User: Fold ABC-2 type transport system ATP-binding protein from Micromonospora chokoriensis.
Amino acid sequence: MIEVRELTKRYGDKLAVDGLTFTVNPGMVTGFLGPNGAGKSTTMRMLLGLDAPTSGSALVNGEPYRAHTSPLREVGALLEARSIHPGRSAYHHLLALARTSGIRRSRVDEVIEAVGLAGVARRRAGTFSLGMGQRLGIATAMLGDPHTVILDEPLNGLDTDGIRWVRALLQGLAAEGRTVFVSSHLMSEMALTAQHLVVIGRGRLIADTSVAELVRAGSRSVVRVRTTHPDALAARLSGPDTEVSFDRDNTLTVSGLTTDQIGTAAGAAGITLLELTAQQASLEEVFIDLTRDAVEHRANTVGATP
Ligand SMILES: Nc1ncnc2c1ncn2[C@@H]1O[C@H](COP(=O)(O)OP(=O)(O)OP(=O)(O)O)[C@@H](O)[C@H]1O
Assistant:
């Protein structure tokens, strides 16, 4: 379990993490989402004892990371900036870590096999592609067979097969009862991998919710209507809670009314409908809506409101 309480990190004038409080439970994959610069990596670094909080606490399995006597067995981590010696082979990198942490040698072969690097394990890590490097990072995280896994952007640089493989791996680890906390800036990727989401923006908590609930709460339904008489239909549909916009090809986008209401209104006015489609906002749109005010650098937006 991961418990973050009022966690704050300030770098000079910059408040990178601002009073974050959330809990990550075992037995499911929890996605950690936010636009670039939201504070995800900083939060993860504090969880792993690589950065000290300005205030607040970040506990893993009840203790700060550094208080654990064998941290590799407690928490496995993959951080974006890898610290693998480029001249060292994957095998020797893992072996050195295993030795210093009292992990049996045979575990090194097990994790190499598990991440699909058996064929290249003796090659220098410096020659690895981004995807191979990610796999080595995941092998490193799994080395101590930890209760909790913290991965920063593990899907970066992976091809479709690699992404599917990481998803299955994370879901498998969660099904074994482990705590799995994974960051990403892509909602669509996370929605397929995680059951729960913690969303942050500008260092602050925006949502702490199940994927299903987020979709339900955030989705605004709009109806696309194509008709022979868009102006006449728009006039018929206008009302205090209705918004109608004109698109190309005699198409209207209507919010605030159901397909039944629109069809009935058109029928009563003798207006022919050529298409009537209810549309749900995609998860990506929900995410963009949620974090709209929290994006640091958005094109065309100077000084987004905090
Ligand atoms: N060592 C540092 N010194 C000063 N500012 C920092 C430092 N580390 C991070 N920041 C700033 O803190 C904010 C949060 O950065 P962080 O890397 O945690 O975000 P992130 O959500 O992981 O973003 P990304 O998806 O781009 O990796 C950013 O504005 C970043 O510039």
